[in-house]
Amino acid sequence: MGAAFYTRTTTSNGVEVLTETIDTVRSVAVGIWLRVGSRDEAADEAGMSHFMEHMAFKGTPTRSAQDISATFEQLGAEFNAFTSKEYTCFFARVIDERFEDAFELLADMVSRASLQEDAVRSEREVVLEEIARHDDTPDDAVHDVFAAALLAGHPLGEPVLGRKETVGAFSREAVASFKERHYTAANAVVAAAGNVSHERVAEAVERWLALPRADAAGRTLKGPAVAPRLSVVTRDTEQAHICWGVPGIPARSEERFALAVLDGLFGGGMASRLFQEVREKRGLAYAVYSYHSLFLDTGEFVVYAGTRPDNAREVVKIVNEEAARLVAEGASDAEVHRVKEHLKGQMVLSLENTRSRMSRLGKSAVTDTEILSIDELIARVDAVTPEHVDSLARSLLERPKTVAMIAPLEGDAVADLVQ
Question: Would the pTM of this model clear 0.90, i.e. be above it?
């Protein structure tokens, strides 16, 4: 392995800092990442990680919510935040000379959020509206229905947004307690990429990111119980929204590059087997695709399709048949080559953006996965052979299937298609 393309240190207050200096651009992307997501919540805290993300924008002792937005806009910044099942990130992308201004504002939001009673009350309503909007969008909501079935009894099966009954009961005390436990120096990583030196970023973190020192919150890692499952939410929708899938592999697995190739050839693009069979040949869906998610202790490999209810059985049957065909016949050299070239192209294109480079550093650090250079990434993809893909297909696609639907159908109409 060659010399690292990034610099990694820990500040005196215990925050890990990673930077990639790119002196050919005029922007800097910086993110404050925290090792807390929906998997870290107690039952009555469901949705709290996402709620805390919202609360950081509601004001600090020296800034109102409007001040925060107005200052970012005055800096000409792109800024936002997001919450996943395993981490939370607050980020900004600015011209290089405004880096300190942007970071000071981000650090103020993350470390000194006021959590005022009236702000908690109003933001509860905002998030309840967000949940209602999500639930009214069945092609989004079905992915949560699927995860809840596939990962039943596992914290990763819980929705990131939480539930109406939990979010509606959040109090200022509960929010403050959650922040105190999870927004700590040991749980934080600052990542930056662009026209900025490592010393400049580390100095800014030392100066402005005041998080309490505490041990990192421990996580219990365990694989999900694997069994065939069916979950049908009967609703009067125009389409049957279908997710079909199996438990995947964890984020640190050496098979993750083979999985990216398997995903690409099975349903990951317009030339994929499922797109060609379901949409191009049979006209059974406008949207049909596969994707995979990698978590610390498990993963998921999923196919989504939206089709008219009368066609739901046929679509699930085709996905089952295509999975069985891939297991039986294997992948061709030509399609493996095509998908590998596509993956490499997408990697290179995505990394010509300072935010993407910052995200790669931050996400790898908070999930404790290795950070590879673009050349190392390309080499890992190049090393995938049709035999690797075939072996992984046999391992994954013969696992018990989970099917989730939001559709004007009853569960017994498709129960026989779950293996």
Answer: yes
